[in-house]
Amino acid sequence: MAAAAEHAPPTAAPAAAPARRRPMAEAWALMPASGRVGLAMLVVYAAVALTGPWWAPFDPGKIAAGPPLSPPSARHLAGTDALGRDLFSRVVHGTGAVMWMSLSATGLAVLAGSLVGLVTGYLRGWIDEIVMRLADIMISIPPLIIAVLVIGAFGNSQTVVILIVALLFAPRVARVVRAATLGIVTEDYVTAAVLRGESALGIAVRELLPNVTGTVFVEFAIRSGFAIMFIGALGFLGFGAPPPTPEWGVMINEGRRTISAALWPVLAPALAMAGLVLAINLFTEGLARVIGRSPGPATH
Amino acid sequence: MPMKLLPPLSRRGFLQTSAGAVAFGGATLSLPGIARAQSKVLRIASGEADSAAATMDPAKNLADPDSARIALAFERLVVLDPNFTPTPQLCESWETNETGDVWTFRLLRGVKFHDGSEMTAADVVFSYRRLVDPDVGSPAAASLAMLPMDGIEAVDDHTVRFRLTSPVVEFPQLIATRFTYIVKAGQSDDDLRTRGIGTGPYRVERFVPGEEPAVFVRHDGYRRPGLPKVDRVELRSIPDSAARIAALRAGQIDINWDLPRVGIEVLEDDPNVRVIRTRSPFVMTMSMWTDTPPFDDVRVRMAMKLVVDREAMLQLVLGGRGQLGNDNPVAPWVRYAIDAPIRERNIDEARRLLAAAGHGNGLDVELYTSDTVFGFVEMATVYQSMAAEAGINVKINRAPADDYWSNVWLKVPFMCSSWSGRPADDALSVAYLSEADWNETRWKNPEFDAAIFEARRTVDEAARTALYHKAQHLLRDEGGAIISMHPDAMAAVRSNISGWSLHPQQFSKDFSEVEIA
Amino acid sequence: MRSAPLLRLLATRVVLAALSLLVVSVVIFWCVEMLPGDTAQRMLGRDATPEALARLRAELGLDRPAAERYGLWLAATLWGDLGQSMVADRPVADWVAGRAANTLTLAGFALAIYIPLALALGLLSAAFRGRPLDQAISVAVLLGMCVPEFVTGLLLVSVFAITLDLFPPLALIDQAQDLGDLLHILFLPALTLAIAMTAYAVRMMRDNLIEVLESPYVRLATLKGLPRRQVLLRHALPNALGPAVNVTALNIAWLIGGIVVVETVFNFPGIGRLLIDAISVKDVPVVQAVALLLTALYILTNLLADIVVIVLNPRLRAGA
């Protein structure tokens, strides 16, 4: 494999277990406890993202909501930052932006990557060869460098961040989905569809897609975790969302300036970020167990 | 592609590379270590990134680390004391004719350059001609526009004369800038960039742009006996303020002159570190283009100034470590400053003015800011929140720090800016004269210009003061600068360091008397 | 016979790598070109007067079209001349080499912490699977994976440098006077990198080791009455090495990006900070050199990993 190191190791045999369709209840029963905890945490995060702006105690941009750099208290659950803004409210308000950016970037990447992976995996031959070589080249460029350059060139809007992360992740997803597809194209039902004269796209969508759904789901889950940390790193390096968005990576970067005086401006967004990634990891692991695919790490 | 010729790989470059390789191989990194063991080393840190564009050529003094290197190796004819009064450094005295357009400086005798040669008038002429020489392209040329190249002449070995095209009553003050350091005559631009020869207390030993630290060693022939008391100075830059504070506390650096104004309580509590604070006329401003809607209406500009709660701004952005600003680039304690009460916040009046200007239903403006200067983002954030109460909706655009000065500054109608502390004339003219290169508020007021030009020619002090006052009142009440604070200069030194003081002008640094206990 | 597939693999890979590097150089050049402003503007910053700009542009050759500048750069690079930094006015090769040596020192130290740590934790958790020790390791690993490296770095600095004063907060490598000093100065950044890598590796290795431990081959060894230690080290470990190499390759690939962030946190004069600095002044030859070096490193790492996996695994070797 040209990029063996990019996705699951050979022993993981990603395509070995085509997903069998199971009802939701059975999936829940198969889900290990840790996976359920992860899912529950995700539900909480999603709820915070959707409803937080209505119940957060303070406006996230409200300066001097309390004395600057005050420690956590009943009034300010996570303390305040150097401008006296309420950190808890900022973290809550940031949840939506962080989840929106990482999930939509991952969603786009998985959509595009899966389509390319399915089609090339099905067609094989020279198209596959060329597309995969291109993917290899894209994968071999250090992602952070490209992201920093592109954001520098096009500005640090949420859209740019989402698009660049999607672009960086798509070839990685394509590789994994293609590998899964290769494992099933020789199955009888696919041959039958070919004999029926169905189009390549039709076969990809109707016959192949349902059988790689599991892989795609797991891929989506793993990638979202990476996306959160990657976008966080961009924010930390000063390439994140512009204010007043209280994006967590940007908050950590801001809090870092006063870290010798107070740790909580860094700790509050960091904990929120770690919790979200933890939830995703737990859920991914559970999901992988249900589907029967090893959730091997791709790149961090 | 650079079109310059490739210099051969120097021996020094080779040594460095192999030192790195040796470190990787696991042997000892001995080169700097040995030198350090036997001598007194002063480790100083700038808070501004030292990019590959770094230099030690006084004519190209741009970034803060540049000015540190230049201050170590060079000296000027005239310096400004902490109260901005001109004081001789490399000269004994100066005199002028009655009209103030011919200035004669008598140089100190027996001043030695790092190479042992003696400084003469020829070196001074060389240094000043470089500054106004269009081929050198020094930014100093703008403020020395009244000084033609052939107006700089050596009268004898120790006398220099400047013939100006127009009178400048305060010429000595005008030449105490960050560019006007005296270099040995005959050096090329390349020499001066990395291995310049001056009369300063330290000579450069190793300075490679993009490589840290820059190393300077004691100038044995320094003109002041017994000085310097330090053998070796290492300069590096630590752009992250938290890292700078941590490094000071851990004893990794001895002096830093660029502290943030918030979050430094730990330093103040640390017995091993002394925090130094000096009030400074440094200006933090938000600039509106006075020729562009909605800021072309003086009522809007006044409303934008009236929404600021200056005391709260100072507390939040600078932790109270600064002085209140009065929409005047001349800080209240600087010579010639007007004595007007600090502008009070008045939301009702701001609303009334906005309504009168046709913005009764609110006003939308976009304010550009950046991380490039500490406090810009905070200032914009706080302003946004204060302006909202008068119905002004400020959208903040946080531009990348890298190219803020090249692509945002002077290119957008409302943005954060800052100016280092300057004497009154310089502070008023650098950005507010109609024809100023850096006219960031696009303020074109003939009355204002006339007052400044007239003041420069006015020998009578009272009359001159009145003219400067007139200019300041015009600017404060009609101009486009929202100046709400003057941050104090903040520095910290390890407690075993003495003999160093913090100048209110950040670029004016002096390490000649530093002593390590 | 045995080396034929390897040689074929190598040949294909070298061609592909060259192609990749070419594409990368075009992409990077184009991206840098797209950044607002030009090198002259970024160098002069606030003091850029039109005359000074024009002068500097001519001096740097910026008045030529972008395609021509790229062509000149490519031609010189193919001749083995990486050129001169536009901004620092010094040979790029020399500069990048010095910084790369620093970064390699740091990365080497990080790997030296990571490899034994990951192996030990992986073995322990597999050997004690399901028991409290394994569970504790699993939780730690999970947490390690959820905390991004810049947070780990900041927390380590906050605790070990600022509060406890055990290690210096900044990795100022030139202040080291001997090897002990060097290790002391580099410990926190190396640990930051090692923690992130270990978390991933242990999680992968544990699953693989358990799989191996449950294979008939190892069970047989256990049934034969061999001591547990010997079973683990002699039989199980070698079989799990392939995946471990793979994870390490993955980790090194990650390291290439992670180093940028960690060098920023610790003010370390390595290649990552050089890159960020070069981007900020649009110093094209330097950005290109660093980006190509990192990409080449990445490709090389993957290639080595593939080769090692093939060599370690007889089945793959036959089938390759």
Outline the structure in words.
- The complex is a heterotrimer of chains A (300), B (517) and C (320).
- Chain A has a single domain, classed as MetI-like (MetI-like fold, Orthogonal Bundle).
- Chain A has ten helices and no strands.
- Chain A has helices spanning 24-30, 33-55, 87-123, 125-140, 143-154, 158-182, 188-195, 200-236, 248-256, 264-291.
- The model of chain A is unreliable at 1-20 and 295-300 (pLDDT under 50).
- Chain B is built from 16 helices and 21 strands.
- A seven-stranded mixed β-sheet of chain B has the order 8-9-10-1-11-19-12, with helices on both faces. A four-stranded antiparallel β-sheet of chain B has the order 4-5-7-6, covered by helices on one side.
- The N and C termini of chain B lie far apart (49 Å).
- Chain B has 517 residues and is α+β, with helices and mostly antiparallel strands.
- In chain B, helix 9 packs antiparallel against helix 11 (347-356), helix 14 (424-432) crosses helix 16 and helix 15 runs antiparallel to helix 16.
- Chain C has a domain at 93-282: Orthogonal Bundle (MetI-like fold), CATH 1.10.3720.
- Chain C has 13 helices and no strands.
- In chain C, helix 1 (3-34) packs antiparallel against helix 12 (284-312) and helix 7 crosses helix 8 (179-213).
- The longest helix of chain C is centred in the last third of the chain and has 39 residues, at 228-266.
- Chains A and C meet through helix 4, helix 5, helix 8 and helix 10 of A and helix 1, helix 6, helix 7, helix 8 and helix 10 of C.
Kindly summarize this structure in a few lines.
The complex is a heterotrimer of chains A (300), B (517) and C (320). Chain B has 517 residues and is an alpha+beta fold.
Any descriptors?
heterotrimer; A: 300 residues; mainly alpha; MetI-like fold; disordered N terminus; disordered C terminus; B: 517 residues; alpha+beta; D-Maltodextrin-Binding Protein, domain 2; Dipeptide-binding Protein, domain 1; Dipeptide-binding Protein, domain 3; 3 domains; four-stranded antiparallel beta sheet; 16 helices; globular
